[in-house]
Write a structure and sequence with these properties.
7-stranded mixed sheet, Aspartate Aminotransferase, domain 2, alpha/beta
């Protein structure tokens, strides 16, 4: 569609937006008595207004029922995590039996690698992307060392071509083929945190599986943002944080996926604990571990209820809206943001380089912008004027117009503030 750089046009888009009313279900920080323009939902999503209700429910049950809350609360604590499976499976494209929630993201990836990184003298290498999110780099290197291998030999990084910002799927497949039967695991971030590039997870998974390797995905920037079909793609495992696009609050609980082919078995190695033990047998206190028949077999400790409550609140909203509607608006509002950035660049004779792919199939909610002519001062100006953006060295700002709570008027107003900042010659 053709866009216009005007407040009237942006307002008309908001009037036609079927998701516009959801903005009112979130709490915005204030700047001079107005909602900030919040583009950092790719780091921490805004708080839904209904979140407090879900937390209060747990706190009130704790106060009135104490230990009996495990069984007599309106949402009993002992199976609280099971309430996520049906709705979360729709978000990630899985069977309900394949998903659950526990711990936090890197902890879950470590635990899942117990099952899915089982190196041998021949098959011991891990393929990942260069400059992955630092926590993934630390995790992978520490796992390799734990098994007695040298990270320099065991970790193979997929690299971008000289002078390019994006990974090419052809290069990923070439790397997988080259490593061949030495590859024990392919573990990549489904959406690159820096550029916002979405990997071709279906194609990469298939290629890696054909070599006999396990395949896992870190979906921190993908869940609630892009279309996922983890079961149909044949992914072995995945995990994701819930506090970005899924708005569960800082450091809240992580979701995870384990393909059903690994369920109902005692033989697969994993670190085991009480909550992964058969629910029917759990309180018999038997010494032998009997795994739950689904992804819950990877649970270890009882669920962190106060951390899960905000996640459940937001997940109910996602289930009401549906990922198809979220993605439809995402594509339109990100395109409008791209249009406004180009309009501002022309009006101010600036060199903005959008390093996120142009193709909608290769990007989600985020646009990363290289500010070639400007530095940290422009970022500071935006923040001081009520625009929350994310800064990454050397001079990249990441903008995430989250479909559930960002309006088209936000995009237009951002463009006007950006122009004023540039006019002050903030180099």
């Amino acid at each position: 569609m053709s866009f216009e750089n005007s407040l009237g046009f942006a307002s008309s888009l908001d009037e036609k937006d079927p998701l516009a009313s959801y903005r009112n279900q979130f709490i915005f920080p204030q700047h001079q008595g107005k909602d900030v323009i919040y583009f950092t939902g790719n780091s921490l999503g805004l708080q839904p207004k209904q979140t407090k209700k879900y937390i209060d429910e747990v706190v009130n049950d704790w106060a009135s029922l104490a230990v009996e809350g495990h069984f007599k609360a309106d949402k009993p604590w002992w199976d609280y995590h099971e309430r996520f499976s049906e709705q979360l499976s729709k978000v990630v494209g899985a069977k309900p039996s394949e998903v659950s929630v526990m711990n936090t993201l890197t902890v879950n990836l470590h635990l899942l690698m117990v099952s899915f990184y089982r190196p041998s003298s021949k098959r011991f290498k891990i393929i990942c992307e260069e400059k992955a999110f630092p926590s993934d780099q630390y995790m992978i290197a520490s796992q390799v060392r734990f098994h007695g291998y040298d990270p320099k030999e065991a970790i193979v990084e997929i690299k971008k071509r000289e002078g390019e910002h994006h990974f090419r799927t052809a290069d990923v497949l070439k790397t997988i083929a080259a490593v061949g039967d030495e590859c024990a695991l392919v573990l990549i971030g489904g959406v690159n945190y820096y550029t916002g590039q979405v990997f071709d997870m279906k194609t990469i998974t298939k290629a890696a599986k054909n070599t006999g390797a396990f395949v896992g995905w870190d979906l921190a920037h993908a869940v609630g943002n892009v279309s996922l079909q983890l079961h149909d793609w044949g992914v072995d495992f995945a995990s994701w944080c819930s506090y970005k696009y899924m708005n569960s609050g800082p450091g809240s609980a992580s979701g995870y996926f384990v393909n059903e082919k690994y369920h109902n078995t005692k033989e697969i190695p994993r670190l085991e604990g009480w909550w992964g033990h058969s629910k029917k047998e759990r309180f018999l206190m038997a010494p032998e571990f009997i795994p739950e028949p689904d992804a819950n077999a990877w649970q270890i400790s009882n669920a962190p209820i106060l951390s899960l409550a905000p996640y459940l609140s937001s997940l109910h909203m996602f289930d009401e809206v549906g990922m198809d509607a979220i993605i439809t608006k995402r594509n339109k509002i990100v395109s409008y943001l791209e249009f406004i950035l180009k309009e501002v660049a022309i009006a101010t004779n600036s060199n903005f380089e959008i390093i996120t792919p142009v193709n909608q199939e290769e990007r989600g909610t985020q646009l990363s912008v290289f500010l070639h002519d400007y530095g940290r001062e422009l970022f500071d100006y935006l923040m001081e004027h009520g625009v929350f953006v994310d800064w990454r060295e050397p001079n990249v700002i990441r903008l995430a117009p989250v479909p559930l709570y960002i309006s088209y008027k936000d995009i237009f107003n951002f463009g006007e503030i950006l122009k004023k900042g540039i006019s002050k010659n903030l180099k």
